[in-house]
UniProtKB/TrEMBL annotation:
It holds the Pfam family HMGL-like. The keyword Transcription does not apply. InterPro entries: Aldolase_TIM, HMGL, PYR_CT. This is Hydroxymethylglutaryl-CoA lyase. Residues 6-277 form the Pyruvate carboxyltransferase domain. Signal peptide: none annotated. Belongs to the HMG-CoA lyase family. It comes from Streptomyces albipurpureus.
Length: 302
């Protein structure tokens, strides 16, 4: 059955902005994050401590984290790819990190300049380093990308995803987010993947889903995941986003579209939809183009 509440893991400030061509001022990013928290989102991924040459848009990660230090009642995780990124994050007092690996070799090389095995080893160093620095005070989330298909390799095998994902959970990730980086998945595939994790000993309560809406499947896939026992859903305010190293990746599932569906189902999110829509309209103004979210457009037209 469906849950009474769902935890939304907001990725707009990170996944949403990482692909933005024009620089977004640090002050706009921090106001965006502050407004998202004000709209009731309790987990807002803030930025990435990746190589600034690889993702120039997030080169101000340290400044973003510093500027948000006073913000309470919200977790602000950041992406960390390697030990260099971990050191930078720790220097800025970060206690919530997310590591990421690909289920496919082609994307692993393009996104991390590593094979899958090498990126798992790099990730293990990050988790070990985080434990040494902060013990259990530092929480580590794991992402697996290209869980359904890859633009260079075609459909991704369920075994490959469960293999990589199980390694991340065994390394100590408290939660595993299954990424449909290019949005090709469909509900039956979602159900089969979550069931395969269950058979491998990893219940749906340890899983989150991370859908990009390229093929318009994100909401249907989310419902399938909820029916399979998933309770955490990643989404991006206004539907911003896309990965710079993944051909044909577009925006994430829009948080507003997700909230509309969940509230319609009587599922609690803690999110004030009107405040969230106002935030996305404000951000769309800054970016100079309308939000792709259907709910943002519909409510703005009312
Ligand atoms: P590399 O070029 O192999 O780096 O990149 P390296 O390890 O060879 O190091 C080269 C130099 O960079 C060294 O400096 C390092 O210190 C420095 P030198 O000794 O030459 O002076 N360096 C760094 N500096 C600052 N911060 C760092 C860092 N690391 C190394 N973190 C690397 C390897 C992993 C760094 C690079 O490939 C990278 O940054 N990739 C990140 C790509 C990315 O951010 N992609 C988007 C996020 S993933 C995503 O969007 C998917 C997701 O949303 C889920 C889904 O949708 O599926 C999560
Ligand atoms: Mg993503």
């Amino acid at each position: 059955g469906l849950p009474q509440s769902v935890q939304i893991y907001e990725v707009g400030a990170r996944d949403g902005l990482q692909n933005e061509q024009r620089p977004v001022p640090t002050a706009v990013k921090t106001e965006f994050i502050t407004r998202l928290a004000g709209a009731g989102l309790t987990t807002v991924e803030a930025t990435s401590f990746v190589h600034p040459k690889w993702v120039p848009q997030l080169a101000d990660a340290g400044e973003v984290v510093d500027a948000l230090r006073g913000l309470s009642g919200v977790r602000l995780p950041v992406l960390v790819p390697n030990e260099a990124g971990l050191r930078r994050a720790l220097d800025h007092g970060v206690t919530d990190i997310a590591v990421f690996v690909s289920a496919t070799e082609a994307f692993s090389r393009r996104n991390l300049n590593r094979t899958v095995a090498e990126s798992l080893a790099m990730t293990e160093q990050v988790i070990t380093g985080a434990r040494e620095a902060g013990g259990d005070r530092i929480s580590v989330r794991g992402y697996v990308s290209m869980c359904f298909g890859d633009p260079w390799e075609g459909e991704t095998s369920i075994d490959a995803v469960v293999g990589v994902g199980s390694r991340l959970l065994e390394m100590g990730c408290y939660e595993l987010s299954l990424g449909d980086t290019i949005g090709v998945g469909t509900p039956g595939h979602v159900r089969r993947l979550i069931a395969a994790f269950g058979e491998a000993g990893h219940p749906a309560s340890r899983l989150a889903v991370h859908f990009h809406d390229t093929y318009g499947q994100a909401l249907a896939n989310t419902l399938a995941a909820l029916q399979s026992g998933v309770r955490t859903v990643d989404a991006s305010a206004g539907g911003l986003g896309g990965c710079p190293y993944a051909k044909s990746a577009t925006g994430n599932l829009a948080t507003e579209d997700l909230v509309w569906q969940l509230h319609g189902l009587g599922i609690d999110t803690g999110v004030d939809l009107d405040a969230l829509v106002r935030t996305s309209l404000w951000m769309a103004d800054h970016l100079g183009r309308p939000s792709p979210s259907r709910v943002v457009r519909a409510l703005a037209a009312e």
